[in-house]
Amino acid sequence: MVNVKEYLERPTFVLIILVLVAIALAKLLRLETTDYLITIMFFIGIAMSLNLIMGFAGYVSFGHTVFLGISGYIFALIVYYNVWLAEMLDTLFGIPIFLVAIVAGGVSALVAFLVGVPVLKLRGAFFAIATIGLDFAALYIVKAFIPIINPEFFGAQIILPAYALAYKNNVFVAMYITFALVLITNYVVRRSRFGMGLLAISEDEDAAEALGVPTRKYKLLAFALSAFFTGMLGAIFGLNAGGVDENLFNLAHTIDMIVMIVIGGIGTVMGPLVGSIIYFILYDTLLVTYPEFNLVILGSIVAVLVLFAPRGIIGIIRGKTIRGKRLRDIIE
Amino acid sequence: MDVIIKIDRVTKRFGGLVALNKVSFNIYKGEILGVIGPNGAGKTTLFNCITGVYSPDDGRIYFNGVDITGMPPHKITQLGIVKTHQIVKPFNEFTVLENAMIGALFGKRAGKISKEEAREIALKNLKLVGLAEKKDELAIGLTLHEKKFLELARVLSAEPDVILLDEALAGLNPKEVEESLDIIKMINKDLGKTIVMVEHVMHAVMNIAERIVVLHFGQLLAEGTPKEVAEMPEVITAYLGDKDLALKFVRR
């Protein structure tokens, strides 16, 4: 029996519901364009996907753009070569989009699993460097082979045919479901035994293994899960953009994801969620007001934050107490 | 007495260095076994071989008759052998209670107990080592002595049959050593756990252990009761230095 009152006392859960309701309301009341909301969900979603491996297990992956890219291309190729499927995308409230995105995300999860077997043996900076290498390798493979598949994919660019471009509302629904899944998975994992094991790994991997945590299995699982959701979001985002090109592999996307997590606070669910919302708002407003300097300003803000609050916004407040209860215990 | 762990001609090399050279001995159920020897004798390597951190180059290790050689550490933990670390490794950002809960959640009954049960087991063991009042504090704030007790509570929460203590007493003051010894005795007598301890605090180990194993340059130098070992000439030259002093420790 689910105790509603108990859930309402958990701020992270309430925040997740608020974010989901806010986006649904914004869509229904047409406060913003659908495109804008899809972009917001994409940004927050990829940060929360990376959070599963980086936030919980402490493995900073610079290679997550690979999964955006792989799934983006897989999705585009499936749609390009299956006309019947492409024509179906615009039906059934976006469910077909969601299902094809699951397939595309699954490919990323599989790649993450295979790559993870050797790469997750590395720790700290070495893991990070290996994943950067992964990103470059994937980029050049795609650049070399995509034009070979079909000369129309000139410059490794796949432009989706017009009949595949779904009505925006259906793309929105598919993105919304995926986004909700990512947030809920984060919440469930954080409170589970699996989540505790991952956090133990991020604290001290040897001690975790010695206490019975199957560290290899858990790391692989978290990496694959993280890649799966990143891939799904990349696939739907690619559809929304009307096609994919090598820019999906741009390392800058990964940096964005990492910064969003660090601003909010590593090791929590609320942190990256708050962090990514703040980052997106900052990024968006700065881009409009100071188009030449937005990255300079944003970079400085991030640098100052990391210097003075290495564990992010949540890190500043988690030691404080309210009515005798430590915020840390309430938040997490 | 029943053999719980059988170490059979275990050899471990690091490059040209032979850290363990055909070491064989038995660990009996319910005993306190002390492992002593000079630095570099292979004591910690032996522990790491038993717990699966290292895979021996040669030889086998049996636990309750099951060959555990080369198993990953977490499997061996779940079978029932757990060790504490020479350099304490608490999960700093976890509370004291959460630290102990990890032991329960992933220990011998991994996957079979709920979080609530794990919490109870953890609390029980924190009480046992006297850390129950600090259960909601972060582990990073504990003193070294408390961190060592936390390691013990964490390991106990895994509900093992055998506990390996790697220099659990190092760095403690005499009063803390006494406290620790009482707890170790209680774990052995009341909870029935087999205890193997690597230790340099000689009066402590000679006093508490029922049997002693002496390692020297990776080889088994001697095996026997504390009194027997303290009188062996080769042990005295290799490690103890002074026979009278060694015997004094035993008598205390």
How many distinct folded domains of chain A?
A: 1
Tell me roughly what share of residues is in helical segments of chain B: 40-55%
Q: Largest beta sheet of chain A, briefly?
A: 2 strands, antiparallel
Q: What class, by secondary structure content of chain B?
A: alpha/beta
Helix percentage range of chain A: over 70%
- Second-tier CATH architecture of the largest domain in chain B: 3-Layer(aba) Sandwich
Note down, in words, how this protein is organized.
The complex is a heterodimer of chains A (332) and B (252). In chain A, a hairpin with a 2-residue loop joins strand 3 and strand 4 (325-326). The model of chain A has no long low-confidence stretch (mean pLDDT 82). Chain A is mostly helical and 332 residues long. In chain A, helix 3 (34-54) packs antiparallel against helix 11, helix 3 crosses helix 12 (251-264) and helix 12 packs across helix 13. A two-stranded antiparallel sheet of chain A has the order 1-2. Chain A has helices at 4-8, 11-28, 34-54, 64-81, 83-88, 95-119, 124-149, 168-191, 193-203, 205-210, 215-241, 251-264, 270-289, 294-308, 312-317, 327-331, and strands spanning 158-159, 243-244, 321-322, 325-326. Chain A has 16 helices and 4 strands. Chain B is of the alpha/beta class. Chain B folds into 2 domains: 3-80 and 161-251, 3-Layer(aba) Sandwich (Rossmann fold); 91-159, no CATH class. Chain B contains 10 helices and 10 strands. Chain B has helices at residues 43-50, 73-79, 96-106, 115-129, 144-157, 174-189, 202-208, 226-231, 233-240, 243-251, and strands spanning 3-14, 17-28, 32-36, 58-63, 66-67, 81-84, 162-166, 194-198, 211-216, 219-224. In chain B, the strands form 2 sheets. Chain B has a 6-stranded mixed β-sheet with strand order 6-7-8-3-9-10, with helices on both faces. In chain B, helix 3 packs across helix 4, helix 3 (96-106) packs parallel to helix 5 (144-157) and helix 4 (115-129) crosses helix 5. Classes of the chains: A mainly alpha (332), B alpha/beta (252). The A-B interface holds A 193, 196-197, 199-200, 203-204, 206-216, 267, 326, 329 and B 51, 53, 72-74, 77-78, 82-83, 85, 89-94, 98, 101-103, 105-107, 110-111, 115, 136, 154-155, 158.
